Amino acid sequence: MLDIAAGSGRHTSLLLQMGFHVTAVDRDVEALRAFAGPTCEVRPIDLETGESWPLGGDYDGIVVTNYLHRPLLPDIVAALGAGGILIYETFALGNERFGRPRNPDFLLRPGELLEVFAALTIIAFEQGEVSHPRPAVIQRIAAINGPLGPLPPALAPSLKGVTPRPGAREQPPAA
Fold first, then answer.
1. Residue 109: domain span
2. Within this chain, do residues 114 and 81 fall inside the same structural domain, yes or no?
3. Which of 1, 22, 38, 91 has the fewest CB atoms lying closer than 10 Å?
4. How far apart are CA 72 and CA 69, in angstroms?
């Protein structure tokens, strides 16, 4: 799993607790150093230098939250392995009413994540205002690099007992 702009390690910690091997990347990795070990590689990288993608590929999953650098978006798609899952959430236009970020360079346009990740199979997409953990305007997407099918075996046990939301349709089994 790859945690981009991992910050304090909130998602890195969760992924490690779930049993995944994680590469946690941020410009400032001081808060991430505590996670470094046999199942977690911590990499201090500034992804906004314009240099080529330094993180390789074939990831089973990529998580990005509260971060947007548009030139990286194609690299993120390319780094996702076959059947890999992408979870991406960040701020959108309208967030300037609530605080930072206010600069449109760091705010998604309506439906932008759908456009950028159109080559992936979209599992879920949301955009709009949220009130928790603080008021904001966001977009979030979950997508898979490949056709819909059964969940990867590593994820299935962690979702045991989860009840689908009312009205959710069950996907047909993969052929």
1. 49-155
2. yes
3. 38
4. 6
Residue range 62-104, pLDDT digits in tens: 999 999 999 999 999 999 999 999 999 999 999 999 989 999 9
Q: Is the pTM of this model over 0.70?
A: yes
Length of the chain: 175
pLDDT in tens, 117-174: 999 999 999 999 999 888 999 999 999 999 876 666 665 555 555 544 444 444 433 4
Buried b (16+ CB within 10 A) or exposed e, 50-89: eeeeebeeebbbbbbbebbeeebbebbbebbeeebbbbbb
Distance CA 15, CA 61 (A): 10
In-domain check, residue 130: yes
Task: Based on the fold, state whether residues 35 and 73 are members of the same structural domain.
Answer: no
